[in-house]
Amino acid sequence: MRRSTYVKIRKLTALYVIGLVASVWTLFPIYWLVKSSLTPNKLMYTPQPKLIPAEWTFSHYQELFTKSPFLGFVKNSLYIALLVTVISVAISVLGSYSLTRLRFPGRGFMLKSIIYTYLLPVAVLFIPMYVAISRYGLNNNKNALLVVYPTIVVPYCCYMLISYFKAIPKELEEAALIDGCNRLQSLAKVILPIASPGIAVVSTFAFTLSWNEYLYALVLTTTPAQQTVTIGIASFNFGDQTIWGLLTSSSVIASIPAVLLYFLAQRFLKTGLAAGGVK
Amino acid sequence: MKTAAVKRRDDRLLGYGLLVPVAVIVFVIIGIPFVNAIYLSFTDKVVGVTPKFIGLANYMAIFSDKEYWKVLKNTVVFTVGSVGVKLVLGLLLAVVVNQNFFGRGLLRAVLLVPWALSGMVSAVTWRWMYDDTYGIINALLLRWNIVHLPVAWTSDPSIALLSVIIVNIWKGLPFFIFSLLGGLQTIDGQMYEAATIDGAGKVRQFFAITIPSISPVIAITVLLSTIWTFNSFEIVYLITGGGPLHASAVISTYTYEVAFLQNKMGQSLAVAGSIIPILVALIIFSMRKLNKDD
């Protein structure tokens, strides 16, 4: 009896020590990002920064929105990410419905091609895409991203939506078809309402993927008027030396969609992940 | 009432019709530039000039370039180092958050955070912490007397690659923890009870039950992470820029450098093209695990 209590205490201690170390490792960089965005310059540029600054300030945020092109970057990012999400989710819903509910030759090939493109990294594709976009005179035009981002987002959305659609019992749709609905009506009236929580999750991911994208935006846009948040922030580097207030505050703002995604995933992890993992 | 044959034909037509937009994206918007790029890697393409076919010259040029091999080696070290550590720590932490203890939910929530942040935000944050003069990491190491001189995290050739590996681990660990946790949750607890009755210790149980039960999950997690890590860009580009002297350059940043700083488009396509065989192998392995149709 005493021995087993001893073992339990030892195990709990180990769990808490590991948990604490892992939490500090995970959260400290984020704390430091937020803390730096609120630290006045005179306390920021010292070789011995305090873990908790003696003074706080919103001046970096003020400067960011009033004296830098940041707001323009945010508008561009919103424009791109919203449009790409709507276009990509619509395309993917139709494609995934076709791939899960209809039978036709070439279906398996199409499924494979989608997973292939989902796995094909941007690092291999960005120069080819740059060459193609330049040929059509679309370089340094943010609208080029509307063409290019679906190549990342659509394969991902299809991959996710196919699982959701497969989980919907065929019988529900068959009933609708017998009642005289055609396929498109049954998609709109049966499948979409049932799959809507899944579509919401997929849309959030699609939005975040576009909002966070870096490499394509880096090579396809060159002037601030066309650039998105990810590229715009990094370009603050080239200004003067003490630019970290702007860099950190803009990074905090740029992470807002990530925060939403994070809370969504939280719910997901509690309820859905275990069930989804079994498939 | 339509006949069954007509219905089947209608379904087939609709099936193709609904797939047209996806097919355009996969085969036109990705496919055509991709095939064209393979052709251009055999030309002397520079921006704004008609390319001329030069055979294997670009590939010969990069394969005989010491810098290329250095970068490829860095990429392998970066990938194997990051993925290896992420797997070991991910497994440890997945087992930890799979135990029952007070605060487990909170710990899970905390460990997920870096996953949600963009590569750019992670890179900016760490670069600021790594700063030679004002960075918090050096400040703490000096304050605690762990080092006596500031460490040049991003500009010392022997440390730069390690610095970007650390950031990649920080950013990529949640994916490992939660996908392995998903695997752990499917293991039947009765197997452990049976093993305990048979007298197997915890360590023995871990290697005889836990690892074999989740080995498919481990395989797919490692494969996906290997593909992503092998091609990651922002972390290296924004923290060290691949420097100093290519000490931390990886294939993706080197491709960018050859294309836009050295202005050799054809050669940069050869750099990107040269890793396609490795990628295709990884992708084919992953496909076997991911293919949902059968």
UniProtKB/TrEMBL annotation, chain A:
<dbReference type="Pfam" id="PF00528">
    <property type="entry name" value="BPD_transp_1"/>
</dbReference>
<feature type="transmembrane region" description="Helical">
    <location>
        <begin position="78"/>
        <end position="97"/>
    </location>
</feature>
<dbReference type="InterPro" id="IPR035906">
    <property type="entry name" value="MetI-like_sf"/>
</dbReference>
<feature type="transmembrane region" description="Helical">
    <location>
        <begin position="186"/>
        <end position="211"/>
    </location>
</feature>
<comment type="similarity">
    <text>Belongs to the binding-protein-dependent transport system permease family.</text>
</comment>
<feature type="transmembrane region" description="Helical">
    <location>
        <begin position="109"/>
        <end position="133"/>
    </location>
</feature>
<dbReference type="InterPro" id="IPR050901">
    <property type="entry name" value="BP-dep_ABC_trans_perm"/>
</dbReference>
<keyword id="KW-1133">Transmembrane helix</keyword>
<keyword id="KW-0813">Transport</keyword>
<keyword id="KW-0812">Transmembrane</keyword>
<feature type="transmembrane region" description="Helical">
    <location>
        <begin position="12"/>
        <end position="34"/>
    </location>
</feature>
<feature type="domain" description="ABC transmembrane type-1">
    <location>
        <begin position="74"/>
        <end position="265"/>
    </location>
</feature>
<dbReference type="InterPro" id="IPR000515">
    <property type="entry name" value="MetI-like"/>
</dbReference>
<feature type="transmembrane region" description="Helical">
    <location>
        <begin position="243"/>
        <end position="264"/>
    </location>
</feature>
<keyword id="KW-0472">Membrane</keyword>
<feature type="transmembrane region" description="Helical">
    <location>
        <begin position="145"/>
        <end position="165"/>
    </location>
</feature>
<protein>
    <recommendedName>
        <fullName>ABC transmembrane type-1 domain-containing protein</fullName>
    </recommendedName>
</protein>
<keyword id="KW-1003">Cell membrane</keyword>
UniProtKB/TrEMBL annotation, chain B:
<feature type="domain" description="ABC transmembrane type-1">
    <location>
        <begin position="72"/>
        <end position="288"/>
    </location>
</feature>
<dbReference type="Pfam" id="PF00528">
    <property type="entry name" value="BPD_transp_1"/>
</dbReference>
<keyword id="KW-0813">Transport</keyword>
<dbReference type="InterPro" id="IPR000515">
    <property type="entry name" value="MetI-like"/>
</dbReference>
<keyword id="KW-0472">Membrane</keyword>
<feature type="transmembrane region" description="Helical">
    <location>
        <begin position="235"/>
        <end position="256"/>
    </location>
</feature>
<dbReference type="InterPro" id="IPR035906">
    <property type="entry name" value="MetI-like_sf"/>
</dbReference>
<feature type="transmembrane region" description="Helical">
    <location>
        <begin position="159"/>
        <end position="184"/>
    </location>
</feature>
<keyword id="KW-0812">Transmembrane</keyword>
<protein>
    <recommendedName>
        <fullName>ABC transmembrane type-1 domain-containing protein</fullName>
    </recommendedName>
</protein>
<keyword id="KW-1003">Cell membrane</keyword>
<keyword id="KW-1133">Transmembrane helix</keyword>
<feature type="transmembrane region" description="Helical">
    <location>
        <begin position="109"/>
        <end position="129"/>
    </location>
</feature>
<feature type="transmembrane region" description="Helical">
    <location>
        <begin position="12"/>
        <end position="35"/>
    </location>
</feature>
<feature type="transmembrane region" description="Helical">
    <location>
        <begin position="205"/>
        <end position="229"/>
    </location>
</feature>
<feature type="transmembrane region" description="Helical">
    <location>
        <begin position="76"/>
        <end position="97"/>
    </location>
</feature>
<comment type="similarity">
    <text>Belongs to the binding-protein-dependent transport system permease family.</text>
</comment>
<feature type="transmembrane region" description="Helical">
    <location>
        <begin position="268"/>
        <end position="287"/>
    </location>
</feature>
